[in-house]
Design brief:
This protein is an alpha+beta fold. Strands 17-16-18-19-20-23 form a 6-stranded antiparallel β-sheet. A 3-stranded antiparallel β-sheet has the order 12-11-15. Helix 47 (1124-1134) runs antiparallel to helix 48. The chain is elongated and about 130 Å long. It starts with a helix and ends in a 5-residue tail after the last strand.
Length: 1470
């Protein structure tokens, strides 16, 4: 013990001790032997006692000066650091053995010592209410106090209780109760307690009370003991109830903000007291103890004590004004609500009064589910369990699961479009809402008040949905489990005059609209009346009225104590004490039907303390009554009553001198509870005579009063239900209800409208009008906002109708109008003041991850399964470029391919536009904004001012019309040759840009700056491919590749084909048009030397064939090796903008001839030598037919014969096409050409508008070809061949021969490479993440032991990349390179700045995007659809395919930045 106390590392030390002791004491044999031979129990208890004695302080509870009680000091390290824990844990462990616990419970000396130990905690951590200044230092000692009570007192108690389950163990209970009571008596003496608790003090720690309560409960529930034989005398019970009652009142005070000067920690205590881990060792025993006291004490005394503790006695007067000496008027309402709610809890809860364990579990579960849908794990956590693990009810046992499936439905995890990941939730079944929703249980178990409201909102929604009740319902009344016979006395509370007087008074006050009353008060009053009717004593007590006369002095209010008969008792006059200013005073007594009590201000009201029994008027003083009862009880029990009642206490109730003089007034009431209820019905329903007794129409109502229509509803329904129950219980009541209804009731209350009320009425009207005005304004604002949004989003949807008109007059092309989302002005984009689209530029390697197999790669989970990246799209393109660069001229190679498969720049926009100068000032303001932002303004990042989408650049909009409509429509009849010539001329005339480059305008500056942004988005290694660094060819290649990347990615987003057709998927969110303008402007800066212009090679047969061979340098790339899509973009982007549609079509036609020839050449290489011979001959036969140029057989034959001239076919055969029949050839050719057609169609769609047609997959080729104008007239499908799309600008055979000769000459030099370069892989599957195994354990077992390749140790935080399967160390210092940790480095190499990593030890996925990262969530969930972050719960986890799809979708569509909200900088440390 001493070492423990002195040790600095007490945690480590405790763990070591417990590791040894737990093995010693877990074995029952060994434990028993040690206790018998070594007095282990004595030693343990004594050591604990000594340990605590080292940190005791004097208790300040009750009587600060003379208190003899000592408590532990919660601020001491011993308690703060839980240093006592190993000793207590061994003690609990050893008590779990029946034989040892028996020894403990039989040993009186030990019990006395233990109670001594427990009393050190009784009253610890005392709170004193701060009345003036806010407390300077909020102490957090309450953590230690609650932990100490739970661990040192409650857990051993639960351990002992678990052995008191059968009748034979009665003796043990008697022992514990006996010594517990002795300890309590000592405690009362020590703190010098008489009958009133000290004001403004509360302690939440009463372990002795709780020991006493729990053993009583066990005695009745399991051991069949007679409760009265173990209960103390009445005086002791009166003392016992004081402190738990004080806690209940203080809870109400804390929630009423009366303790606000004590800081937040006092709220923390109030919450901890009812929180799920503590409630059954704290609030439940307290309420049970109060229930026991209430069942044995005089009910009038108990009820008046409650209202006195809650400080609302003065409010309970019939007068319209009163004066409260102990409570500010702003707290009165909530304290009254608190008192009534407490009474409802006290009278409704049956947790220890007769419910079985299964019923309790079900009630707890229903209460938690009604507040909110819950996950399985949070439900396990929220259901209060026995804190002692060996107690038997372990959540998660069979009963938990079976109850859960009985009361709740499982909602599988769904995905909101906002991207927030839902967990699997349990939600209450409809019949649970209907029959089992219990607001009382919900109130008891809510830590936050808002949860009660949440439960009611959900209940309301259920009633609306199921059509049971449309309005705002009241909490439903729920039937209770029957009371255990030992506690029948509790019912007396409902049938005592004091309560009836309170209920009568409150009903009257509510009816009269007095201040400080709320619907909640009325609800609770009605609940109490209903409880009384449900639990009425057996016989209708008519003979009670002849009961003894000595009690008559105040009982003239009501004849007896039975609620059923008291309900019909009319009360005529009441004498009240009121301030002289009150309205009641000014009138003659009989006339005063005090109705306009509203008039006066918040000055107070009060019931008289004197007994004046004048005539018929009745007076009642709660406080005086309580004094009288108290004296009677004490005199009955002890002879020395004079010592007990101290005069000091009555002082508190006398009014301070400053208050107005009190005077007596007599009120005429003439009401009974029944008549008040009926008037209340009229008031609530807002109609006169609204109540009509239902049994007059249908007598069955009285026989079967349980009608479903009364079970849900508002106050009106509740009143109807109560009146029906009253009528069912007694014939007299039924008759009186009918009589009251017969009298035509005057309006309630009969108001002469006084000026004050006029004011309130006006106020109401004014409020109503204001509300209507507000609604109107909101509606107007909403419609304006909507139209604004529509225009803002509508930047790029010009009317199609316009196009038709414009076709005739080419000049009137309207300019596009843009709205600036910052200054709100609309207008065209001009050269001086350009408008720009808000865009996000990001480097992307998604395209590079495409593979040519449809089967996705699996994440390796064994040593054998490894992933090699050589079959990805990026790898193959890289190899191709390197090969070309080896054999051909560099500048020509850089135009023969596209880059950007890895590290390409993807541009996306939210569709909103702004003036570029507005944007600059916006960025300036962001820079000066000190608020922590999730992005870096210095890197140009910002959020769109309108939709808050993440962005990092602005793409200038090119002045002029959006889409060249006029040119789109006008089909010219120029012949192909003319068009080809025009295209060539246009390419020659450089600089014919409407915006001349030489003159620096704002627009050209912005275009340059955005181009810089685009370049700096990706890393240098992804832009530099030429052998001579910094050559202009590099820039040229990079720019057209940006266009290619964006087109290819859009294709991927559409699912890899254009079958779905329609407008661009993102519709108005596409920025390709603007992007092309920016790229084109920069491409035009690089002139293509006319000698090398590829257009010539495609359209003119060259004369001189041998010049190339003589030159020293490397030859140019043969046309057949060039990537046709790249050529297309080069042609389009080097033409003057805007481009004419006819020239566009011309370019496509020419390029299609080249593509087709490439397809034929590739096919010829793939088929066997015999097939080649056959095709060559059959082609030669048909060569001279008129349609020879449009037949693939002829062309194929020609290609084969031309290529045979070189050494192309001599090398060993490559893989062969299986069956070479005409159909499969046609199919091969179409598949080869489709990627080009798709890209071209998208390009046409963006440049010229027009929708993409939708089609079936097998028709895609024909539909796209005709859309692009390649098919002259649409032929019927059966005779369609791809060759019919060909349109040769010059004789086909010359052209093909020329192209083939280039290959032939190359083959002579490098025969080994010819074939490899010819066969391009046109068919890529969509990019996919790696496929994950079903069970998480598979991943965990393999990776969490895997060693780091650098330092060969097992990393602390292993992670694996889900794109390529690389194993990396998160935050690992061993793999750090130039201050970059491995994950960040890998994200740059594998995803050009985007990384998706699965953290092995946490099952969570993190996303790295550039300099930021975020936790994405987990794709592995347990059987209940929940994540297990950090694997804390250790549940088996299974892949959630929907979540993984969402992750993949966000990766492919580059939307991580928009959907995930919580980003933070990683400072390269991941």
């Amino acid at each position: 013990m001493k070492t423990l106390k002195k040790s600095h590392e007490s945690d480590t030390m405790s763990n070591r001790i417990v590791h040894i002791s737990v093995q010693l004491f877990s074995n029952e044999e060994l434990a028993r032997q040690v206790t018998e031979e070594c007095q282990l129990l004595d030693i343990m208890v004594t050591v604990l006692l000594y340990m605590m004695e080292s940190c005791l302080i004097k208790s300040e509870l009750q009587d600060e000066e003379n208190s003899l009680h000592v408590v532990v000091n919660c601020g001491e390290a011993l308690l703060k650091n839980n240093t006592y824990w190993p000793l207590v844990s061994d003690f609990i462990n050893i008590l779990s053995h029946q034989s040892v616990a028996k020894k403990f419970l039989e040993d009186h000396g030990l019990l006395v010592t233990w109670m001594n130990f427990v009393s050190f905690f009784q009253g610890m951590n005392l709170n004193k209410r701060e009345l003036n200044e806010h407390v300077e230092f909020e102490s957090q000692t309450y953590y230690a106090a609650f932990a100490a009570e739970l661990e040192a007192c409650a857990q051993p108690m639960w351990g002992l209780l678990s052995h008191c389950k059968v009748r034979e163990t009665q003796e043990y209970t008697r022992n514990v109760v006996r010594y517990c009571l002795e300890a309590l008596q000592d405690w009362f003496d020590a703190i010098n307690f008489v009958d009133e608790p000290a004001p403004n003090q509360v302690t939440f720690h009463l372990p002795l009370h709780r020991y006493f309560a729990m053993f009583l409960s066990k005695a009745v529930k399991c051991q069949e003991l007679d409760l009265d034989t173990i209960l103390p005398d009445q005086e002791m019970l009166m003392k016992l109830m004081i402190h738990p009652l004080q806690i209940q009142a203080s809870l109400s005070e804390i929630h009423s903000n009366m303790w606000v000067r004590n800081g937040l920690q006092i709220k923390g205590q109030a919450m901890t007291y009812v929180q799920s881990h503590f409630c059954n060792s704290m609030i439940d025993p307290d309420i049970y103890l109060l229930q026991v006291c209430a069942s044995r004490l005089d009910p009038d005394y108990f009820i008046s004590s409650v209202f006195e503790r809650f400080k609302v006695v003065d409010l309970l007067t019939m007068a319209s004004q009163h004066q409260n000496t102990v409570l500010d008027s702003e707290h009165e309402r909530s304290m009254l609500e608190g008192a009534l709610t407490f009474l409802v809890l006290l009278l409704s809860l049956r947790l220890h009064l007769g419910m079985t364990d299964d019923e309790i579990l079900r009630a707890e579960m229903v209460a938690q589910l009604c507040m909110n849908d819950r996950t399985h794990s949070s439900l396990l956590d929220l259901i209060p369990e026995n804190p002692n693990p060996k107690s038997g009810i372990i959540p998660g046992s069979l009963s938990f699961e079976s109850v859960l499936s009985a009361v709740a439905d499982f909602k599988a995890p769904v995905f909101e479009p906002g991207g927030s990941m839902q967990q699997g939730m349990y939600t209450p079944k409809a019949e649970v809402w209907d029959k089992e929703f219990d607001p009382v249980m919900v109130i008891l178990r809510t830590v936050y008040r808002r949860d009660v409201q949440s439960a009611m909102d959900r209940y309301t929604a259920f009633l609306k949905q199921s059509g049971k009740f449309p309005g705002n319902p009241w909490p439903p009344y729920k039937k209770r489990t029957a009371l255990h016979p030992s506690y029948k006395g509790l019912i007396k509370l409902l049938h005592c005059k004091t309560l009836h007087i309170v209920l009568f008074t409150l009903l009257y006050k509510i009816l009269m609209d007095h201040q400080n009353l709320s619907e909640h008060v009325l609800c609770m009053v009605l609940y109490l009346i209903e409880l009384g009717l449900e639990n009425s004593p057996e016989q209708e007590s008519d003979e009670e009225e002849s009961a003894g006369g000595q009690e008559r002095c105040h009982d003239s209010w009501f004849p007896g104590s039975n609620l059923v008969s008291n309900m019909r008792h009319f009360i005529n006059y009441v004498r009240v004490r009121v301030p002289e200013t009150a309205p009641e005073v000014k009138r003659e007594p009989p006339a005063s039907t005090s109705s306009d009590g509203l008039a006066s201000s918040q000055s107070s009201r009060r019931k008289s303390l004197q007994r004046e029994n004048s005539g018929t008027a009745q007076v009642f003083s709660l406080v005086a009554e309580r004094r009288k009862k108290f004296q009677e009880i004490i005199n009955r029990n002890t002879s020395e009553a004079n010592q007990v009642v101290r005069p000091k206490t009555s002082m508190k109730w006398s009014a301070p001198g400053a208050t107005p003089q009190l005077t007596t007034a007599i009120l005429e009431v003439k009401e009974s509870i029944l008549s008040l209820l009926i008037k209340l019905h009229h008031k609530l329903s807002g109609k006169q005579n609204s109540y009509y007794p239902p049994w007059l129409d249908d007598v069955d109502v009285l026989i079967h009063p349980e009608i479903p229509r009364y079970s849900h509803g508002d106050g009106v329904t509740a009143v109807e239900r109560i009146l029906l129950k009253a009528a069912v219980q007694s014939r007299l009541n039924k008759r009186i209800i009918e009589e009251i209804c017969r009298k035509v009731t005057p309006p309630v209350p009969p108001k002469k409208i006084s000026s004050a009320e006029k004011k309130t009425l006006d106020k109401e009207e004014r409020r109503q009008k204001a509300r209507e005005r507000q609604q109107k304004l909101l509606a107007e604002f909403a419609s304006r906002q909507k139209s604004f949004m529509e225009t803002a989003m509508d930047v790029e949807s010009p009317d199609v109708d316009v196009a038709m008109e414009v076709a005739t007059s080419e000049q009137h092309v309207s300019e596009a109008i843009y709205d600036c989302v910052i200054c709100g002005q609309s207008g065209p984009s001009t050269e001086d003041r350009p408008t720009g689209l808000v865009v996000l530029l990001q480097a992307s390697s998604v395209l590079g991850q495409c593979r040519n197999s449809t089967e996705p790669k699996k994440l390796p989970t064994t040593e054998e399964e490894q992933i090699y990246p050589w079959d990805t799209c990026a790898a193959l393109h890289d190899v191709r470029l390197t090969t070309l660069q080896r054999y051909f001229k560099d500048s020509s190679c850089l135009q023969a391919v596209s880059i950007g498969w890895e590290g390409g720049v993807y541009v996306q926009t939210c569709g909103h536009t702004l003036h570029i100068d507005c944007h600059k000032s916006y960025m300036e303001s962001l820079r000066n904004d000190q608020v922590l932002q999730g992005f870096s303004v210095d890197k140009g990042e910002f959020t769109c001012p309108l939709c808050r989408q993440f962005a990092n650049s602005v793409l200038p909009c090119y002045p002029g019309n959006n889409v060249e409509r006029s040119l789109w429509q006008s089909h010219s009849n120029k012949c192909m040759q003319d068009l080809v010539q025009e295209v060539e001329d246009l390419q020659e005339q450089l600089g014919t840009f409407p915006v001349s480059i030489s003159s620096e305008t704002n627009l050209s500056k912005e275009m340059e700056s955005v181009m810089k942004d685009i370049k700096s988005t990706t890393q240098k290694k992804y832009t530099d491919y030429s052998k001579s660094p910094g050559s202009p060819d590099n820039d040229f290649l990079f720019m057209y590749s940006v266009a290619r990347t964006n087109l290819e990615l859009e294709l991927v987003h559409r699912g890899g084909n254009l079958c779905s057709g329609g407008a661009s998927t993102a519709g108005k969110r596409s920025c390709l048009n603007q992007l092309f303008h920016v790229l084109a402007m920069h491409m035009r800066l690089y002139s293509i030397d006319s000698a090398y212009n590829p257009w010539r090679k495609l359209t003119q047969p060259t004369q001189d064939k041998n010049s190339e061979l003589l030159s020293e340098e490397l030859p140019e790339v043969p046309v057949l090796y060039r990537d046709v899509s790249s050529l297309l973009l080069i042609q389009i982007l080097t033409m003057p903008q805007p481009l004419h549609k006819e020239h566009f079509t011309c370019i496509i036609k020419v390029l299609f001839t080249l593509l087709y020839t490439q397809a034929l050449a590739a096919l010829s290489v793939k088929c066997s030598a015999e097939d080649r011979m056959a095709w060559k001959e059959s082609g030669a036969l048909k060569k001279n037919a008129s349609s020879g140029e449009k037949s693939w057989e002829v062309l194929l034959g020609h290609v084969i014969s031309e290529l045979s001239k070189g050494k192309i076919y001599e090398e060993g055969d490559t893989e062969e096409l299986t069956v070479v029949n005409p159909d499969s050839v046609e199919c091969y050719l179409q598949q080869f050409c489709l990627p080009f057609l798709r890209i071209t169609s998208l390009l046409q769609h963006h440049l010229f508008g027009g929708d993409l047609p939708s089609c079936q997959e097998d028709e895609e080729f024909t539909v796209l070809a005709s859309c692009l104008g390649l098919l002259p007239s649409f032929q019927s499908a059966h005779q369609f061949t791809s060759a019919s799309c060909l349109d040769w600008p010059v004789p086909a055979f010359d052209m093909v021969s020329q192209w083939c000769s280039e290959l032939a000459s190359f083959a002579d030099r490098h025969p080994d490479q010819v074939k490899a370069l010819l066969i391009q892989e046109p068919k890529w599957d969509l990019p996919r993440l790696l496929q994950l195994p079903e069970n998480y354990n598979t991943i965990f077992q393999y990776y969490h032991r895997k060693t780091c390749t650098v330092c060969t140790k097992v990393p602390k935080d292993p992670a694996v990349c889900l794109v390529c399967g690389t194993f990396v160390c998160l935050k690992g210092l061993c793999c750090k390179q130039q201050s970059y940790c491995e994950c960040v480095l890998h994200s740059q190499n594998c995803g050009a700045g985007t990384g998706i990593f699965l953290l092995i030890n946490a099952s969570v996925i993190i996303i790295i995007r550039g300099h930021r990262f975020c936790l994405w969530g987990s794709v592995y969930l347990d059987a209940h659809g929940e994540e297990d972050r950090d694997l804390r719960r250790g549940k088996p986890l299974y892949i959630c395919k929907e979540r993984y799809k969402v992750l993949e979708q966000q990766w492919v569509s580059h939307t991580f930045d928009h959907i995930n909200k919580r980003w933070g900088p990683h400072y390269n440390g991941l």
